[in-house]
Amino acid sequence: MNENTNENTNENTNENNNQTIQKSNQIFFIPTKKQMKSKLIEDFGEILKTSSNYSDFQIKVANDSITFNTHKSILSSRSPFFSKWFKENESSEIQFSDVNEQTMKNILEYIYTSKINSDEQNLVSTWILSNKFQLDLLTNFLENQILQSINNENVMNFIELNKIPKSNKLEKKCLNFISNHLDKFTSNENLTKLNQKQIERIISKRITNKEIVEVQIFEFIKNWSEKQIQSNENEIKKQNQIKQITKPIISKINTNLIRIEDIESLQQYNFLPNKLILNSKLSDIQEMKQQLEQEKLQQIEIDSSQNEKKKKKEEFYKKRFEESILATNEQYKNTIKTWINDDEFFNSMKLGFSAKKDGFSSWVFHSKCDDKGKTLVIIKTTSNYIFGGFTQVGWLSTANGNYINDPKAFIFTLKNPANQQPQKFTYKNNGQAIYSNNSYGPTFGGGHDIHVNQNFNQGSYTNLGHGYNPPSGYSYGSTQAQSYLAGNYNSWQIEEVECYFV
Questions:
Q1: Bias category Low complexity: which stretches (predicted)?
Q2: Distance CA 419, CA 421 (A)
């Protein structure tokens, strides 16, 4: 009986205690730390919303059309920028004309509450302003958001924005992105936003750990370098400037990783130094072609008697000649033969170089045509105009970058836009008959009267009248003289270049 009474008494006591605690909690609210923090944030957010009565500082944005009422004590404690500004200025307002309302609202909400809205539309502008106000935690957070949003459409803009708040992390991520998607940017109009160091980093990243150097790398370099040059520069000056700009970039490329099958397509890039092409096994391609010809000739030697050898060799060279420009028109052959006035040369000359067969490149031209003496050059454009030149001296491997005098040199037109008869233009004897340069194809005169560029179909031009006498009534530098041979100064394309020598 006593035990039951004690148990009942204890239960009643516990129940009374619980009721007392509940009643006291209703009278005295004791929040948890989490609840206290949440309430503090809410209260500061409320201060920002209803601060007009207690504000001591105004921030004006959007060309002063929007005003935020704020508090110096909060701004200075949260932002080093404002802390310094208040020490140096007594004004009760500040203007940020180029900042929009939502961007400033995002920043102030963070300053007052440590919260940030997910605002993709103003992400970049909020990041820039956060950096200006030296809100490091927010700046890093927003930067990571930007890094995750990089794509083909915005990466160039981010690179340019990076100049405002300098961020090595953002720049590196953007350059790596371009490197990994290089084919998307080879012709991008925004390439001008990249500087030389950035281009070097893109290329370096692209070729790291790769077994080949891709042709698209050179296309990317070409398009970037061309956008660095003023469009009103003349072609020769432009090409020289491009070579200077690209030299430090090209020097970082391991040319041994260029595939043989890509070599001929690389001839179009005028900025490539001579050694790059040679080191890239261009000679291997030419050796293969020459070897096939030699093997055919050797087979003739093995299989034939002396008379048969001579006959078959003539047939061998005749077959190549039959596919040439001269073979298509007997009148052209007779006209040129008369102009050259050297039957021995004309009757024994062979087609030693054909751009269609050997490559549209100055490197191939010089490897096959240097030191051959008398040389006849015939050029045919895609518009079916035919012109060229003749030199008794020829191009010399020892005269790289020099003019060569040749009193008997001349240039000519066989078929021209004006439908004039074939005509020979005599040399002015000014010491500039032909120009020998490994980076140039066959070039006549100092103007140049005829210039075939390193890549035959990029930068070639005609400028008749400098080293050779133009047609009657035409003057050097005039549109008529520049257009007489090919239809215009430099917008024509080459279908074929042929060189004949003994």
A1: 1-18
A2: 7
